[in-house]
Amino acid sequence: xxxxxxxxxxxxxxxxxxxxxxxxxxxxxxxxxxxxxxxxxxxxxxxxxxxxxxxxxxxxxxxxxxxxxxxxxxxxxxxxxxxxxxxx
Length: 88
Prior knowledge:
two-stranded antiparallel ribbon; 1 helix; Immunoglobulin-like; 20% strand; alpha+beta
């Protein structure tokens, strides 16, 4: 992500975040320019992943997503396991 803003003094302010640790959805992300600040809200492509860091390689997010999928799978299978007696 690259942002350059022209300041009231005439100078440029630049922000470079490259690469972002995960993919963002530009269509649902937002930019709001206020008198005192610029707010940039990045919308995640994969909502199930909690970003551990904004830039670079975020190995923890992958493991957290995998753990979340495993929990979801276990919860989905729990009724079948109880019926078959596999939960013991």
